Protein: Enoyl-[acyl-carrier-protein] reductase [NADH]
Amino acid sequence: QSGVLRGKRGLVMGLANNRSIAWGIAKAARLAGAEIALTYQGEALERRVRPLAAELDAHVVGECDVTDGASIDHVFAEVEKLWGGLDFVVHCIAFSDKDELTGRYVDTSEKNFTTSLAISCYSFTAVAQRAEKLMKTGGSLLTLTYYGAEKWMPHYNVMGVAKAALEASVRYLAADLGEKAIRVNAISAGPIKTLAASGIGDFRYILKWNEYNAPLRRTVTIDEVGESAVFLLSPMARGVTGEILHVDAGYHVVGMKNPKAPDI
Ligand code: NAD
Structure:
Protein backbone atom coordinates (compact mmCIF):
# COMPACT_ATOMS: atom_id res chain seq x y z
CA GLN A 1 0.00 0.00 0.00
CA SER A 2 3.08 2.21 0.17
CA GLY A 3 2.42 5.59 -1.41
CA VAL A 4 -1.11 4.93 -2.71
CA LEU A 5 -2.37 8.04 -0.89
CA ARG A 6 0.62 10.26 -1.70
CA GLY A 7 -0.55 13.81 -2.39
CA LYS A 8 -3.97 13.18 -0.84
CA ARG A 9 -5.32 15.30 2.01
CA GLY A 10 -7.79 13.72 4.40
CA LEU A 11 -9.88 14.65 7.42
CA VAL A 12 -10.32 11.91 10.04
CA MET A 13 -13.14 12.51 12.54
CA GLY A 14 -13.79 10.45 15.68
CA LEU A 15 -10.37 9.92 17.23
CA ALA A 16 -10.68 9.37 20.99
CA ASN A 17 -7.52 7.44 21.89
CA ASN A 18 -5.00 4.93 20.52
CA ARG A 19 -7.62 2.15 20.57
CA SER A 20 -10.00 4.08 18.26
CA ILE A 21 -10.74 2.71 14.80
CA ALA A 22 -10.03 6.30 13.64
CA TRP A 23 -6.46 5.83 14.92
CA GLY A 24 -6.00 2.62 12.92
CA ILE A 25 -7.22 4.41 9.80
CA ALA A 26 -5.24 7.64 10.38
CA LYS A 27 -2.02 5.66 10.92
CA ALA A 28 -2.52 3.52 7.81
CA ALA A 29 -3.47 6.52 5.66
CA ARG A 30 -0.38 8.41 6.83
CA LEU A 31 1.81 5.40 6.11
CA ALA A 32 0.31 5.33 2.62
CA GLY A 33 1.46 8.91 2.12
CA ALA A 34 -1.61 11.03 2.98
CA GLU A 35 -1.58 14.31 4.87
CA ILE A 36 -3.99 14.07 7.77
CA ALA A 37 -6.20 16.54 9.64
CA LEU A 38 -7.95 15.51 12.86
CA THR A 39 -10.84 16.78 14.97
CA TYR A 40 -11.68 16.03 18.58
CA GLN A 41 -14.86 16.13 20.63
CA GLY A 42 -14.37 18.24 23.76
CA GLU A 43 -11.39 19.30 25.86
CA ALA A 44 -10.91 15.97 27.62
CA LEU A 45 -10.28 14.22 24.30
CA GLU A 46 -8.11 17.08 23.01
CA ARG A 47 -5.46 16.07 25.55
CA ARG A 48 -5.40 12.57 24.04
CA VAL A 49 -5.65 13.63 20.40
CA ARG A 50 -2.83 16.22 20.31
CA PRO A 51 0.02 13.80 21.12
CA LEU A 52 -1.40 11.24 18.66
CA ALA A 53 -1.62 13.95 15.99
CA ALA A 54 2.05 14.79 16.63
CA GLU A 55 3.01 11.15 15.95
CA LEU A 56 1.54 11.47 12.45
CA ASP A 57 2.55 15.11 11.77
CA ALA A 58 -1.19 15.62 11.50
CA HIS A 59 -3.02 18.95 11.73
CA VAL A 60 -5.56 19.37 14.51
CA VAL A 61 -8.27 21.47 12.88
CA GLY A 62 -10.38 21.94 15.96
CA GLU A 63 -13.11 20.77 18.19
CA CYS A 64 -16.14 19.26 16.49
CA ASP A 65 -19.33 18.15 18.15
CA VAL A 66 -21.51 16.94 15.30
CA THR A 67 -24.71 17.88 17.14
CA ASP A 68 -23.65 21.49 16.48
CA GLY A 69 -23.74 22.38 12.77
CA ALA A 70 -21.67 25.52 13.42
CA SER A 71 -18.80 23.42 14.77
CA ILE A 72 -18.86 21.26 11.61
CA ASP A 73 -18.81 24.47 9.50
CA HIS A 74 -15.88 25.74 11.54
CA VAL A 75 -13.82 22.58 11.01
CA PHE A 76 -14.40 22.58 7.24
CA ALA A 77 -13.53 26.29 7.09
CA GLU A 78 -10.24 25.45 8.84
CA VAL A 79 -9.59 22.63 6.35
CA GLU A 80 -10.22 25.04 3.46
CA LYS A 81 -7.78 27.55 4.97
CA LEU A 82 -5.20 24.81 5.46
CA TRP A 83 -5.38 23.00 2.13
CA GLY A 84 -7.83 24.86 -0.13
CA GLY A 85 -9.41 21.48 -0.99
CA LEU A 86 -9.92 17.99 0.37
CA ASP A 87 -9.52 14.45 -1.01
CA PHE A 88 -11.10 12.25 1.66
CA VAL A 89 -13.08 12.25 4.89
CA VAL A 90 -13.24 9.37 7.35
CA HIS A 91 -16.24 9.47 9.73
CA CYS A 92 -15.78 7.28 12.82
CA ILE A 93 -18.53 8.72 15.00
CA ALA A 94 -21.38 7.06 16.86
CA PHE A 95 -23.22 7.55 20.13
CA SER A 96 -26.10 6.13 22.11
CA ASP A 97 -27.04 6.33 25.78
CA LYS A 98 -25.28 3.39 27.46
CA ASP A 99 -28.40 2.61 29.49
CA GLU A 100 -30.18 1.67 26.25
CA LEU A 101 -27.34 -0.52 24.90
CA THR A 102 -28.57 -3.33 27.07
CA GLY A 103 -31.93 -5.04 27.42
CA ARG A 104 -34.62 -4.73 24.76
CA TYR A 105 -34.79 -2.51 21.66
CA VAL A 106 -38.52 -2.08 22.18
CA ASP A 107 -37.80 -0.02 25.31
CA THR A 108 -35.82 2.67 23.42
CA SER A 109 -36.86 6.20 24.41
CA GLU A 110 -37.75 8.77 21.77
CA LYS A 111 -35.08 11.10 23.11
CA ASN A 112 -32.27 8.55 22.80
CA PHE A 113 -33.59 7.35 19.42
CA THR A 114 -33.37 10.90 18.08
CA THR A 115 -29.94 11.57 19.59
CA SER A 116 -28.48 8.24 18.41
CA LEU A 117 -29.75 8.70 14.85
CA ALA A 118 -28.58 12.33 14.72
CA ILE A 119 -25.02 11.59 15.90
CA SER A 120 -24.52 8.15 14.37
CA CYS A 121 -26.31 8.64 11.03
CA TYR A 122 -27.22 12.23 10.12
CA SER A 123 -23.77 13.56 10.98
CA PHE A 124 -22.29 11.63 8.03
CA THR A 125 -24.69 13.42 5.67
CA ALA A 126 -23.92 16.75 7.37
CA VAL A 127 -20.22 16.10 6.79
CA ALA A 128 -20.84 15.09 3.15
CA GLN A 129 -22.60 18.42 2.53
CA ARG A 130 -19.51 20.35 3.63
CA ALA A 131 -17.01 17.96 2.00
CA GLU A 132 -18.74 18.20 -1.40
CA LYS A 133 -17.84 21.89 -1.61
CA LEU A 134 -14.14 21.20 -0.99
CA MET A 135 -13.83 18.13 -3.22
CA LYS A 136 -13.48 20.03 -6.48
CA THR A 137 -11.85 17.20 -8.41
CA GLY A 138 -13.60 14.28 -6.74
CA GLY A 139 -12.95 12.52 -3.47
CA SER A 140 -13.82 9.71 -1.15
CA LEU A 141 -16.06 9.58 1.93
CA LEU A 142 -15.89 6.67 4.33
CA THR A 143 -17.92 5.76 7.41
CA LEU A 144 -17.91 2.88 9.88
CA THR A 145 -20.79 0.50 10.42
CA TYR A 146 -21.49 -2.84 12.10
CA TYR A 147 -23.28 -6.10 11.24
CA GLY A 148 -25.95 -5.19 13.81
CA ALA A 149 -27.40 -3.06 10.97
CA GLU A 150 -28.24 -6.23 9.01
CA LYS A 151 -29.14 -8.75 11.70
CA TRP A 152 -30.31 -8.63 15.30
CA MET A 153 -27.45 -8.55 17.80
CA PRO A 154 -27.89 -8.68 21.57
CA HIS A 155 -27.77 -5.23 23.25
CA TYR A 156 -26.99 -3.33 20.03
CA ASN A 157 -30.60 -2.09 19.93
CA VAL A 158 -31.04 1.48 18.62
CA MET A 159 -27.47 1.46 17.28
CA GLY A 160 -28.53 -1.32 14.90
CA VAL A 161 -31.33 0.88 13.62
CA ALA A 162 -28.96 3.87 13.34
CA LYS A 163 -26.39 1.79 11.43
CA ALA A 164 -29.09 0.49 9.05
CA ALA A 165 -30.01 4.12 8.31
CA LEU A 166 -26.32 4.99 7.94
CA GLU A 167 -25.82 2.17 5.41
CA ALA A 168 -28.86 3.37 3.44
CA SER A 169 -27.44 6.89 3.50
CA VAL A 170 -24.16 5.58 2.03
CA ARG A 171 -26.16 4.38 -1.00
CA TYR A 172 -28.11 7.63 -1.38
CA LEU A 173 -25.02 9.81 -0.95
CA ALA A 174 -23.12 7.64 -3.46
CA ALA A 175 -25.86 8.20 -6.04
CA ASP A 176 -26.04 11.96 -5.37
CA LEU A 177 -22.30 12.62 -5.39
CA GLY A 178 -21.14 10.15 -8.05
CA GLU A 179 -21.41 12.67 -10.88
CA LYS A 180 -18.84 14.77 -9.04
CA ALA A 181 -16.52 11.73 -8.80
CA ILE A 182 -17.05 11.64 -5.04
CA ARG A 183 -17.22 8.02 -3.85
CA VAL A 184 -19.07 7.05 -0.67
CA ASN A 185 -18.43 3.77 1.11
CA ALA A 186 -18.55 2.12 4.53
CA ILE A 187 -16.53 -0.48 6.34
CA SER A 188 -18.54 -2.90 8.43
CA ALA A 189 -15.96 -3.76 11.08
CA GLY A 190 -16.06 -6.79 13.31
CA PRO A 191 -16.18 -6.11 17.06
CA ILE A 192 -13.08 -4.39 18.50
CA LYS A 193 -12.54 -3.34 22.11
CA THR A 194 -12.73 0.48 21.98
CA LEU A 195 -14.17 3.20 24.21
CA ALA A 196 -17.48 3.22 22.31
CA ALA A 197 -17.71 -0.59 22.31
CA SER A 198 -17.26 -0.72 26.09
CA GLY A 199 -20.74 0.86 26.36
CA ILE A 200 -22.35 -2.19 24.74
CA GLY A 201 -23.71 -4.81 27.14
CA ASP A 202 -21.81 -8.16 27.34
CA PHE A 203 -19.21 -6.95 24.82
CA ARG A 204 -16.67 -9.56 25.96
CA TYR A 205 -19.16 -12.29 25.04
CA ILE A 206 -19.65 -10.76 21.58
CA LEU A 207 -15.86 -10.69 21.02
CA LYS A 208 -15.50 -14.33 22.06
CA TRP A 209 -18.48 -15.40 19.93
CA ASN A 210 -16.88 -13.78 16.87
CA GLU A 211 -13.49 -15.28 17.63
CA TYR A 212 -14.92 -18.80 17.79
CA ASN A 213 -17.35 -18.54 14.90
CA ALA A 214 -15.80 -16.25 12.25
CA PRO A 215 -14.26 -18.13 9.30
CA LEU A 216 -10.79 -16.80 10.22
CA ARG A 217 -11.39 -17.93 13.85
CA ARG A 218 -10.35 -14.56 15.29
CA THR A 219 -11.45 -10.96 15.59
CA VAL A 220 -9.98 -8.05 13.61
CA THR A 221 -7.66 -5.20 14.64
CA ILE A 222 -7.81 -1.45 14.06
CA ASP A 223 -4.76 -1.84 11.82
CA GLU A 224 -6.60 -4.30 9.59
CA VAL A 225 -9.55 -1.92 9.35
CA GLY A 226 -7.06 0.87 8.62
CA GLU A 227 -5.46 -0.95 5.71
CA SER A 228 -8.83 -1.81 4.17
CA ALA A 229 -9.78 1.84 4.58
CA VAL A 230 -6.66 2.87 2.65
CA PHE A 231 -7.86 0.70 -0.24
CA LEU A 232 -11.30 2.36 -0.27
CA LEU A 233 -9.82 5.86 0.01
CA SER A 234 -7.23 5.30 -2.71
CA PRO A 235 -7.44 5.28 -6.51
CA MET A 236 -7.22 1.46 -6.31
CA ALA A 237 -10.94 1.62 -5.41
CA ARG A 238 -11.82 4.22 -8.05
CA GLY A 239 -14.56 1.95 -9.41
CA VAL A 240 -16.10 1.31 -5.98
CA THR A 241 -18.92 3.38 -4.49
CA GLY A 242 -22.04 2.75 -2.41
CA GLU A 243 -20.29 -0.32 -0.99
CA ILE A 244 -20.36 -1.80 2.52
CA LEU A 245 -17.06 -3.68 2.86
CA HIS A 246 -17.05 -6.23 5.69
CA VAL A 247 -13.74 -6.29 7.56
CA ASP A 248 -14.85 -8.84 10.13
CA ALA A 249 -12.75 -12.00 9.64
CA GLY A 250 -15.66 -13.21 7.48
CA TYR A 251 -18.22 -13.36 10.28
CA HIS A 252 -21.04 -12.00 8.07
CA VAL A 253 -21.12 -15.16 5.92
CA VAL A 254 -21.77 -17.47 8.86
CA GLY A 255 -25.27 -18.87 9.28
CA MET A 256 -24.77 -21.16 12.24
CA LYS A 257 -22.56 -21.70 15.29
CA ASN A 258 -19.26 -23.49 14.61
CA PRO A 259 -19.87 -26.98 16.05
CA LYS A 260 -16.22 -27.08 17.22
CA ALA A 261 -16.51 -23.78 19.14
CA PRO A 262 -15.97 -24.08 22.89
CA ASP A 263 -18.62 -22.81 25.28
CA ILE A 264 -18.26 -19.17 26.30
P1 NAD B 1 -14.27 5.31 19.84
O1 NAD B 1 -14.93 5.52 21.16
O2 NAD B 1 -12.80 5.26 19.81
O3 NAD B 1 -14.78 6.41 18.79
C1 NAD B 1 -16.08 6.94 18.80
C2 NAD B 1 -15.90 8.42 18.52
O4 NAD B 1 -17.18 9.04 18.34
C3 NAD B 1 -15.19 9.17 19.64
O5 NAD B 1 -14.02 9.77 19.15
C4 NAD B 1 -16.18 10.23 20.06
O6 NAD B 1 -15.58 11.45 20.42
C5 NAD B 1 -17.01 10.38 18.78
N1 NAD B 1 -18.28 11.03 19.02
C6 NAD B 1 -19.35 10.59 19.74
N2 NAD B 1 -20.30 11.55 19.78
C7 NAD B 1 -19.83 12.61 19.06
C8 NAD B 1 -20.33 13.90 18.76
N3 NAD B 1 -21.52 14.32 19.20
N4 NAD B 1 -19.57 14.72 17.99
C9 NAD B 1 -18.35 14.34 17.55
N5 NAD B 1 -17.82 13.13 17.82
C10 NAD B 1 -18.55 12.28 18.57
O7 NAD B 1 -14.88 3.94 19.27
P2 NAD B 1 -14.76 3.19 17.86
O8 NAD B 1 -15.22 1.81 18.15
O9 NAD B 1 -13.45 3.43 17.25
O10 NAD B 1 -15.91 3.88 17.01
C11 NAD B 1 -15.70 4.45 15.71
C12 NAD B 1 -16.81 4.02 14.77
O11 NAD B 1 -16.65 2.63 14.48
C13 NAD B 1 -18.23 4.18 15.30
O12 NAD B 1 -19.07 4.61 14.25
C14 NAD B 1 -18.59 2.77 15.71
O13 NAD B 1 -19.99 2.54 15.72
C15 NAD B 1 -17.92 2.01 14.59
N6 NAD B 1 -17.75 0.56 14.81
C16 NAD B 1 -17.14 0.11 15.94
C17 NAD B 1 -16.99 -1.26 16.12
C18 NAD B 1 -16.34 -1.79 17.37
O14 NAD B 1 -16.54 -2.97 17.70
N7 NAD B 1 -15.54 -1.01 18.07
C19 NAD B 1 -17.46 -2.16 15.15
C20 NAD B 1 -18.06 -1.67 14.01
C21 NAD B 1 -18.22 -0.30 13.85
The first strand starts at residue 9 and ends at 13.
